Amino acid sequence: MRPTHKLALLCTLMTATGCRHPYVVPEEPMPPDTVLLSQMMRELSAQPGFTDALLAQIDKGGKKGPALLTPALIDELRKRILGKDWQGLDRFPGWTMREINPTVRVVGHVAGKSPKLEATAAVHPGARATTEAAKQFLDLGPYDLDRSETVELDRPSTLPGFTTDGLVTTLGAGVTRGDGPNDLAPEHTESQRLADVLNRLSANLLPGSTLFAAKVQGHSANSPQDLIAALVATGHEVTVGDARYFANFGHFHYQGKDVMMPFWVNSQIVVPHSGGRPLLIPVSHAEYEWHIRGPHLNADVSYYFGIDGKSEWRTMDTLDQPWVLKRNAHEYRGADAVEVTRLAGLLTVAYMHQHDTRPELPFGGYYALGVCQDGVSAIEQKMTGRVTLFPNTADSSLFNDPRDAEINALIAAIPKDRAGAEPEPERIFGSLPAAPAASPDQAFNAITIPGLADDLNATYKAWQDGTLERTGSTWRLVLKVLLALAFVGGAFVGIRKLRH
Length: 500
Prior knowledge:
Blueprint (H helix, E strand, L loop, with lengths): L2 H14 L17 E3 H8 L5 H9 L12 H12 L3 H4 L3 E3 L1 H15 L3 H6 L10 H4 L14 E4 L16 E4 L2 E3 L10 H15 L9 E5 L2 E3 L2 H10 L3 E10 L5 E3 L2 E4 L3 E7 L7 E5 L1 E10 L5 E7 L5 E5 L11 E6 L1 H24 L14 H13 L20 H9 L11 H6 L21 H14 L5 H29 L1
Parallel strand pairs: 1-10, 2-11, 3-6
Antiparallel strand pairs: 4-5, 5-9, 6-7, 8-13, 8-16, 9-10, 11-12, 13-14, 14-15
Helix pairs in contact: 1-16, 9-11, 10-11, 12-13
Keywords: Membrane, Transmembrane, Transmembrane helix
């Protein structure tokens, strides 16, 4: 093969595998009253100290805070802001799980043990639980582990109503962080009590805990699942939703507008007809949500394992920014709702055992013990026989406490994304908070993040018709062709030498 022919073949190959034209991240259309993070930072990053103040706020948790910003990721975010890389900022970080994982492991190796945890937590499995240690990772409200009592849920809750105190922070320059009330906020006092009661009922399984009970119309419950069964038996409608959202790792508002801040990961799928560009998707947040309506109790609570290291029931009455959307992948009622509740209670206890045994884990065990998706995936596996969430990060080797045998088995059974393996398309699309429409060409048009719906529609259609490509397969093809060209070139040189 002549060198000119080889060059032509190489150019054709590189064009087909991504070296064509640069992708420009779309900045519109945008939802009403919403701005991109890059738009806010274009205007404010030049103000002395503002970038550092924003970065200091970003990783402080919150209702939907599953984006773990390690020092490496914080540094990367700072570089993009200071370097005015607005395109990169609007697809931050855009890394694969294989690239994200080492930044978390490094933190785990250097973090060391927490003196506070070692001073207050019982670090030997089976040791007696204390209220002081438990309340670091389990919100119990006014209830203690060493005090037996029965809570009458027929009586109105005396807890305070919804407030934004501690939820909303003002950073100046027209920027606030945190969200106000949603339409469930009027029920906050009942919802907060129910969350506290469900957490305390779960804690009945902790070593040394005294017996705690809840009662509805004479029906007594000593466990979370018994309470849900009692509510159903007394005429309450109970629905449990397996809810998926786009994770909002910022919760910022600028001049009265929402700031769109997804946390992007590389799915290792090629967007069709893009020249080899990988599909970047925002990380989703997953939780189970209990909606209870009836003659004696109206309340709404959720369960998930969060960036705060807490695996527990929580209230869910802060307002979500519209771009995060919401979809229930599954809904459960009756006996199935009771079973989901039982499993969530066992997860709560299993994570408390982990905190007790491994107080040295950084971030309260978040990421090493999983993210919000892992617990939801474990329950989905038990309830449906499949998992439709990505990513899952739990190190199943850590789930070895014999007291948690059922949870250990469920965590071991779910797909893992710690090693950077290519995730199944079913989990990529299943994690999204928008369900595919009837037409593959318009499957995800409900998504309002600029450019994302088009990418998802194209890749979903390719998945459905069997033409989906992986980024790894593309570059393996490049490598094979380059090796073939090198071989042909070497043979060509050898032939010329023989002729001369």
